[in-house]
Structure formats: C-alpha cells, structure tokens
Specification:
four-stranded parallel β-sheet, ComF family protein, two-stranded antiparallel ribbon, alpha/beta, globular, PRTase-like, Rossmann fold, 17% strand
Length: 235
C-alpha cells in the first residue's frame, strides 16, 4: 500500500530536485544527474573513511600506523559543496526531508559496499545531551538511523548509550581540543549486540566517533562499523 501511495505521489505531484529543480521522485529528491555530480571519495580507508590510492589498499598509512577498533567506515559523500550546504539546512534549519534524501543515497551505497559482508545487527545514533536535544528539537543522527533502518531493515538502538557531559560545540576546535572535549562524554546504559554500526551526520576529525567507540569497546561488542552522511576531507 505504501509503495502504491508513493507511486501515485511521484506520478501526480512533481517533486523538484533539491539542486537543479527538475522533477524527481518523492523518495529521493535529488535527480540522477545531480547525484552523479555530488562530491564523494571513490576509494576510502575502511577505518577512517578518508581517500586511499587504489582498490587493493584498505587502510591509509595513518590507520596502519595507529590501528583503530573500527572495522568499516562508510561515508556517503565528501563534506564539500553542495553537500555541506544541504547538511547545514538539514541540521540547523529543520529541513528533515534533506536528511532523509541523503540517508536514502547513503543506504544505496552501503548496500553496494556490503555485498558479501554481514550488515550490523543494530544501528546506534550518536547521542545528544538532553539540553541540546531539547533546544534543536531532534537528533540528526537518529533521523539518519531511522531512514537507514527503513531501507536496510536494521533496528535502531537509541537507548544503548547516553551523552553524560554537555560538551561545548566541536566547531572551531582542532583535533586535540576535540578529543579532550569529548573525554568521558558517553556512557553505555543498555546491552548491545556483538556487531553494531555507529551513525552520525558528519565525521570531521573522528573525535566524537572515537569517544563513542571507546565506550562500546569496553563491552562485549566484537565489531563496530561507522556510517555517516559525509566526511570532511583531510587538510
């Protein structure tokens, strides 16, 4: 029934592409030509998500020198124009439909990359501190997780961890400051299965992800993947 309704919407109610304005679908409001022009890393390190030079290189030099407990990182796009502007609209201007569209495209990429590999048993959105959640009105990582859950049939666990410290915003902080800012910021409160994926909107230095990975690694989790809409290119 839902598929039929969406088909009717697509047929009778034109949905303009978010980038060029031509008619596109209700499910993905970025047309195919514009999708092909979105910035992305063609080949990426399995650990940190930054570019690698060839298909047979799974980890970048930095991750080889300092191994991470992260098994696989998948980022939909590079955090550059127009993806950066779209995510700002989603995150700070209540444009939830943009987040749903980018999540749809991320889910498609995950399906492609996980062929022959096992998908996580649960999705864990990066938690927000209650005061900040009340101020924004939604957790963008949870919105993304719910969309990925719908497309990939993986349950969302938003009760496994909580943010126990109201850290100051990460914007403007360097990598070391970000890491210090997030020390002991998260706490596990419920059971999680052996294989999970942490979900966030943007990975910048990876400090937030690392703090949450450390929290989960202290439990009986044996594999942690990371999924995000975008990854900031290395400086």
């Amino acid at each position: 029934m839902k598929v039929y309704i969406r088909s009717l919407i697509n047929q009778f109610i034109p949905v303009p592409c978010l980038l060029c304005g031509v008619s596109t679908t209700f499910d993905c409001r970025i047309c195919v030509p514009c999708q092909k022009n979105l910035p992305a890393f063609k080949l990426a390190c399995h650990s940190c998500g930054l570019p690698v030079p060839s298909l047979d290189v799974h980890c970048c030099g930095q991750c080889l020198a300092k191994p991470s407990p992260i098994s696989r990182t998948v980022c939909g796009f590079s955090y550059q124009f127009p993806v950066d502007k779209l995510i700002v609209q989603f995150k700070y201007h209540q444009q939830l439909g943009i987040g749903e569209t980018l999540s749809h495209l991320l889910a498609f990429k995950i399906r492609q990359l996980y062929q022959g590999d096992s998908l996580p048993e649960q999705l864990i959105p990066v938690p927000m501190f209650p005061k900040r959640l009340a101020s924004r009105g939604f957790n963008q990582a949870e919105i993304i997780s719910k969309q990925l859950s719908k497309y990939l049939n993986i349950p969302v666990n938003n009760q496994s961890c909580k943010r126990v410290i109201d850290t100051k915003p990460q914007e403007g902080l360097n990598a070391r400051q970000r890491q210090k800012n997030l020390q002991n910021a998260f706490k596990r409160i419920n059971h999680v299965p052996p294989h999970v994926a942490i979900v966030d909107d943007v990975i910048t230095t990876g400090a937030t992800i690392s703090a949450l990975v450390e929290t989960l690694s202290a439990t009986d989790v044996t594999r942690i993947d990371v999924w995000s809409l975008a990854r900031t290119p290395a400086n």
